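Hi everyone,

Forwarding the result from last night's run.
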Amino acid sequence: MSKKLKVSFFLLCTLLFIPLVSSNTQSFVQNNDVNIRAEIIKDPRVQAMLKEDPINPTQVLKLIENLENEKNPPSDPEVSIDTIKRDIIDQEKTFWIVTDFSTVTYGTISATLLAIGDNSYIYVTSSIISSVGTETARSRAVAWRDEFENKIYPNNLLYFGHPDGNLGDIDTDPHVTVLLAPLSADVAGYFDPNNERSGETSNNREMVYVDYEYNRYSVLAHEFQHLIHYNYDPHEYWWVDEGCAEYSAYLNGYTLATNLTEFARDYFQHNPEDSLLYWNYYEAGSENVRSDYGGAYMFIFYLAEKYGTEAIRNLVSETFGGPLGIENTLDGLGFSIDFNELYLNWVTALNVDDPSFGGGLYGFENLDIAIDYELISIFPNTKTDKLNRFYGMYVAKLVSPGDFMLLEITPPGSYSLGISVALHDINGWSITQNILDTDISVLINGTLVDTVYIITSIVTSITPTIPLADTSQFGLGYTDSLDYTYIPGKPLTITPGTLNYQSNSWDFSLYDVYIEDENSTEVTDVSGISVYAHFEKSGSSLTTESLEMSYNPSIKWNINENLQYFFEGDYEISVVASGSGQYGEKQLSSINIAHILIVENPTISLYNDTALYVFTNSSYTQLDGWKTYTESVETYILLYDVTDTTVGIFNIFYSPLSNSWESDLLLMNEYNGEYYIKVSFKYAGRTVRSSESDHFQLEGEIPTPTSSTAYPFLPIILIVSLSVLVFIKRKNKK
């Protein structure tokens, strides 16, 4: 053999050796998968869930799969479409199945394909066929196929998305496999995401399992939604995923006559304090888990009814989870509402359930629910140690409370308190919602008031977030016990005075406000009464400010304040007075508070005509928002040529040391000619650009394109070839 042939043989052997190494690595990874999965199953958190609720393992299997993927990220399965063969009727196959849900133990089971649809394979296990006979089993399989093909598949496809989602089709076979099997531990059905990637116990196909004897189509609709949702968003929070899965039963017509699921009817409406955002595996008996299912269903039902089923489909494909994902979904559909306001509207609808007012937001069109409440009919009254959970509700129903009353609530030790007051009087329903931290007092007044719902919940003042780790969403969330004091009173009559607001300087004044008691006597005692100018931001009833007013005999009750620190927006102004068992409120006018975002003309330092620094200053007139502004504003340098065309975009950063905005050294080697720049700032939905800078000349050279970009591996090939030639040359010299 010649030396050149020896070299070629050496290179060929090297290339042949590479797949052998890869094959051995693949085997090691598969064995390692088993060890990792065994370790995860022993995790106390997983064991607690298996112990408390072993009859619905889908989410536990999803948790195990996600934890496993974190430790050993999956690779794309190597499936060739040319080698795929569709399953054949009466063909017998062996499937992996969970044989013990308490330990998540896998075993194999044989099953025969007894029915095929355009989108489904219906397999029945051999043990069932032996027990009931082939014809009986086939008849059941055909019925499941027809239900899936004619109802469940098209409905779930329409409302949730395609089963391949973002993950893709693992086996390039569009059929979804439904395995009718005898499932252990009273499990009605489940979806195992383990089948969505290659592994020791994977069936490598889109697949759900249904108990043959349980025989409820709603289970198939529920588990098929899980399959779809996982393929779009494997890390979706449990309450969103389960809410959608329960909602699929409604969409396919499998709920009760009232359209309430059993979990909503029998558990959630009797246990409304259960947290919406946490999945409660930590209280004995699993009753609260059932409430979780019911509450999640009711929330998704509300979301679909008020914002359209498109909101649910978009939510499934939204990769941000939980409340933020819901906000993103609604924003994408043109609805500007934050999660807290949505949540308070939802809990109000659950109790008032009257869609005839308020744009239909406070009731349901297509179901009836009766949330348990505490009935209060004697006043004054104090209720102590009332349980409030994180995004779970405490409800009190006041019957004939009188027309004037003050409610005082002890604030929670942590977080804020969301409050919704639904009052019904001679004028119908009125809804007041707030999120408060301290000095929680609510004025309740109307004309011939007959019913008031007081609904409270521990919340965050901003969009709630729970850490993305899969185990962070389990438990109760923050819990507190609060005291409620109801104090009846007498009316105060408020006569508005003169209101002035200077929008250019944010100076606000209100004076000559006249207040009388029930005997038409002027109230002037500042020690016995508190008077506030109350500002409620339009478009969000949760953003409020209350400023205390003072009394002066010459200008009566008055206030003079600079509102520069208020957030932008329209505000409804009212005067609220309370004290000595007397209460009153008077609506005034509205004002608009706007702020000014200024970006100064940029300064440029040019270096050698091929590099430059950019400096600028900006100001934002909301003084308390400066830190948030500098952290959240989007800033860019825009480079224009003499035709006013944007030819380059660069970053600029805030420097706390100089209290200005500065760029890094910008290398402009590829620009040649006359240019100018503008600096663009985007904040709070507004974009402001500076005026253009002085024009400057750049003398860089525009590089000539080379073929190396078209052939990115060419340099590597040349280097390898050169190395081989050098090797041959050296060997020949020897």
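The mean pLDDT is 84.

Cheers,
N.
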